[in-house]
Specification:
Length: 192
C-alpha cells in the first residue's frame, strides 16, 4: 500500500525479545541492579515508552529474565541432549557442551549472585539446580549401580560445570579446559 504524501513513516517497535536480550546482557554484566529501563532503552537506541507495551514494570522484566534463564540454560539444553539421543555419557557430554558458552555461564553466575540477596531467586535457583542434578542422577544411574556413587559423580560433574571458570591454577602441559574435560571423562567412566 502506498504511503500518503506527508505521512510520517511507521517506526518499527523494539520487540519483546530485544528487551529481554538487553536485560540478560545487563544482568550478566552488573547483576539485577544493572537492569534499569532507562539504561536498556539507551542500549537499544529507543525511548523507554515501548518497554511498557510489553512489561508492567521492572519487576515483570526481572521475572521474564529468570524465565528466559531457566528456559535457555536448563530446559532447552536437557531437552536437546535427550532428543539427540545416545547413551547417558553422551547426553551428559552434550549438556556440558551446550551449556559451556560464556554467555550462558555469565547469566548463570549473575543469577547465582542475585540469589545470595533475594530469597525468591534463591528458591528458583534451588529448583533449577535440583532439575540439573536430577538429570545427572538419572543419567549416571544408568551405568552406576551404587546410589552413593551416583550422588558423588553427579555432584562432582555439577561442580565442574559451575566452577570451571573459577579455576585459576596452572595445569602443566594442559589448558584448564583440557584438565576440566579430563576430569569429566574420568567421572563418565563405568565403575570397575
Amino acid at each position: 500500500m502506498d504511503q500518503e504524501v506527508g505521512a510520517i513513516p511507521a517506526v518499527a517497535r523494539t520487540t519483546r525479545a530485544r528487551w529481554i536480550e538487553a536485560g540478560l546482557a545487563a544482568l550478566a554484566e552488573g547483576g539485577p541492579d544493572a537492569v534499569r529501563v532507562e539504561q536498556l532503552a539507551a542500549r537499544l537506541g529507543v525511548t523507554k515508552g515501548g518497554f511498557y507495551g510489553y512489561f508492567d514494570g521492572r519487576p515483570a522484566l526481572l521475572a521474564e529474565l529468570l524465565d528466559e534463564w531457566e528456559r535457555r540454560c536448563t530446559r532447552e539444553i536437557i531437552a536437546r541432549a535427550d532428543a539427540e539421543g545416545g547413551d547417558a555419557a553422551d547426553r551428559i557430554r552434550r549438556v556440558g557442551q551446550l551449556s559451556s558458552s560464556d554467555d550462558l555461564h555469565r547469566i548463570d553466575l549473575a543469577v547465582r549472585a542475585w540469589a545470595r540477596h533475594d530469597e525468591s531467586v534463591a528458591a528458583r535457583l534451588r529448583r533449577i539446580d535440583n532439575e540439573r542434578m536430577d538429570f545427572l542422577r538419572r543419567a549416571f544411574s544408568t551405568f552406576v549401580a551404587d546410589p552413593a556413587e551416583v550422588e558423588a559423580r553427579s555432584t562432582l560433574m555439577f561442580a565442574l560445570a559451575i566452577g570451571r571458570h573459577f579455576i585459576a591454577a596452572d595445569h602443566p602441559g594442559h589448558t584448564t579446559s583440557d584438565a576440566v574435560a579430563r576430569a569429566a571423562e574420568h567421572l563418565l567412566r563405568p565403575p570397575q
